[in-house]
Design a protein that fits this description.
Elements lengths: L5 H19 L7 H17 L23 H10 L1 E7 L2 E7 L7 H14 L9 H10 L7 E2 H19 L3
Parallel strand pairs: 1-3
Antiparallel strand pairs: 1-2
Helix pairs in contact: 2-4, 3-4, 3-6, 4-5
Bound molecules: heme C (HEC).
Length: about 170
């Protein structure tokens, strides 16, 4: 007959091993937040400001923007596809044009979206470079910038309806 204490002891050992394994996971080189800020300053700050404050009335702020409550994919889509038409940010109307920024690498887009989310959206970033690559693939044919918030919402719906597989040729 096995002694009773065996199970908790095994459990404790298992937990310890799992914990050690988790600690051993390598952090990617460099601080991702620092890299994110660097991308923000390089690619986005010229219009949206270094502090995300925007330049009204032409360029909307991102700091404090309700757009940061949209799913991460929506934010990545704005960068990949661009945005135009009338939108509202923090109670102000904007009618500008953000050009698509497909020249940015997957990693640069992931890092700048992550920077926005973690700095001004107060939430954990979830998209990795590989997610951007997949998204880029799936919106390859969509050459027109999205039209306002409705455009973003329907682009998201379209992605969901397609499912990850069906778009593959
Ligand atoms: C050339 C100027 C320009 C650059 C560069 C630019 N944007 Fe924009 N962005 C705009 C404009 C203009 C709008 C509003 C478009 C409209 O009025 O329909 C906008 C809208 C947005 C929005 C939604 C509205 C808001 O303010 O919350 C987000 C999010 C955003 N941009 C993120 C980014 C990110 C991330 C980058 C860098 C990768 C970036 N933008 C680079 C001009 C720019």
């Amino acid at each position: 007959m096995k002694p009773e204490y065996c199970t908790p002891v095994k459990l404790a050992v298992f937990c310890l091993v799992a914990l050690l394994a988790a600690c051993g996971v390598e952090e990617p080189a460099g601080d991702p937040m620092e890299a994110g800020q660097e991308r923000w300053l390089r690619y986005c700050a010229s219009c949206h400001g270094a502090e995300g404050e925007g330049r009204p009335p032409s360029f909307p702020p991102v700091a404090g923007s309700e757009w940061l409550e949209l799913p991460s994919e929506a934010l990545a889509l704005i960068v990949l596809r661009g945005l135009r038409g009338e939108i509202e940010v923090k109670g102000e109307k904007y009618r500008g044009f953000m050009p698509p920024m497909r020249h940015m690498s997957d990693e640069d887009i992931a890092l700048s979206v992550a920077w926005m989310e973690e700095t001004w959206g107060d939430r954990e970033a979830t998209l990795q470079a590989r997610d951007i690559a997949e998204l880029r693939d799936r919106v390859m044919g969509d050459r027109q910038p999205m039209e306002g918030l409705d455009g973003v919402t329907s682009a998201l719906e379209q992605l969901e309806n397609q499912g990850p597989e069906t778009n593959r040729p």
